[in-house]
Specification:
The protein has 198 residues and is α/β, with parallel strands linked by helices. It has 5 helices and 7 strands; from the N terminus they run βαβαββαββαβα. It has a single domain, classed as Maf protein. The protein starts with 5 loop residues before the first strand and ends in a 10-residue tail after the last helix.
């Protein structure tokens, strides 16, 4: 059986680095989609929809391939926190999370453009934030510049210094790409990541 080429539909350096951990060949094609939430859309529905839409957005350019899409937001109470884009928004997001328990919702999609089959998975990660001083928040934003990260935290870098505890059934999900779930999706496609790539 020939293995379909793999494409990562993402502009995220973190997701790219994560996928490289699997030591498999892949290309990158960042999608251009509107990531705004729809009216009354829950965090779960939002990330699953966007993960799938990212794969569909580039599907026409990649016939007979496996396309990976992902999306992530942070939920605190009933408030959905996405990418801050600006420093002031990052300050507000981190101040809101200080000393609180929040949940990161990570959506994953794998589209087979040969069969048009799409698999989706939601992974929720519970995060306990330390109580953060204004000085710590400012120092962190200056160090990491997390303006394109959900909830203003780059957990793969200095963001780990803001955290007391993390709980998830997929330890990679908090970084943006749930690799355990992705491996299961590849298995459903008949691909063994350990033996099919040499």
């Amino acid at each position: 059986m020939s293995i379909l080429p793999i494409v990562l539909a993402s502009s995220s350096p973190a997701r790219t680095q994560q996928l490289k951990q699997l030591n498999i060949p892949f290309s990158i094609d960042p999608p251009q989609i509107d990531e705004s939430a729809q009216l009354n859309e829950t965090a779960a529905k939002l990330v699953l929809r966007l993960a799938a839409e990212k794969t569909q957005a580039i599907a026409m350019r990649h016939p007979n391939k496996l396309i990976i899409g992902g999306d992530q937001v942070e939920l605190i109470g009933k408030t959905i926190l996405g990418k801050p884009h600006h420093v002031e928004n990052a300050r507000k997001q981190l101040a809101l999370c200080s000393g609180k328990i929040t949940h990161f919702f990570t959506g994953l999609a794998l589209l087979n453009t040969h069969t048009q089959k799409v698999q989706t998975k939601l992974v929720i990660t519970r995060v306990y934030f330390k109580t953060l001083s204004t000085q710590e928040i400012e120092a962190y934003i200056q160090r990491d510049q997390p303006l394109h990260c959900a909830g203003s935290i780059k957990i793969e870098s200095q963001g780990l210094l803001l955290i007391d505890q993390i709980y998830s059934n997929d330890p990679f999900a908090i970084l943006g790409l749930p690799l355990t779930a992705l491996n299961q999706m590849f298995q459903a496609e008949g691909i063994n990541l350990l033996t099919d790539f040499t």
